[in-house]
Amino acid sequence: MGEFTTTIEHRLDQAYRNLQEARTSGDEYLADTFTAEIEDLHRLATDNGVPIRRDEQQGEGRRGEERESG
């Protein structure tokens, strides 16, 4: 595993943790910001052939679902 892959995985792990904290605290703006970061990291990984572990895909698409229901 290369440094780029490791960095993407680390940033995704951190972004998912931060997203959960933002949701727990009720900060919708911050949650949207972390959701966008996760989406960007997924896109970056896909564009560069970095496989994303299944457990890192749990929050994917949540931003759109929240906006539709809100």
Proportion of beta-strand residues: under 5%
List the secondary-structure elements in sequence, H or E.
HHH
Number of domains: 1
- Which runs of at least 5 residues are low in confidence (pLDDT < 50)? 60-70
Distance between the termini: 40 Å
Rg calculated over all Cα atoms:
12 Å
Total beta strands: 0
Question: What would you call the structural class?
Answer: mainly alpha
- What is the subunit organization of this protein? single chain
Mean pLDDT, as a whole number?
83
Per the principal axes of the C-alpha atoms, what is the gross shape? Answer: elongated
Q: Major beta sheet, specifics?
A: none
Question: What's the number of helices?
Answer: 3
Query: Helix coverage percent of residues?
Result: over 70%
Describe the structure.
This protein has 70 residues and is mostly helical. The protein has one domain (1-50). The protein contains three helices and no strands. Helix 1 runs antiparallel to helix 2. The longest helix has 23 residues, at 3-25. The relative contact order is 0.17.
Brief sketch in words of this structure:
It contains three helices and no strands. It is mainly α. The chain has one domain.
Features:
about 70 residues, 3 helices, about 0% strand, disordered C terminus
Draw up the topology in text.
Elements: H1 3-25, H2 28-47, H3 62-69
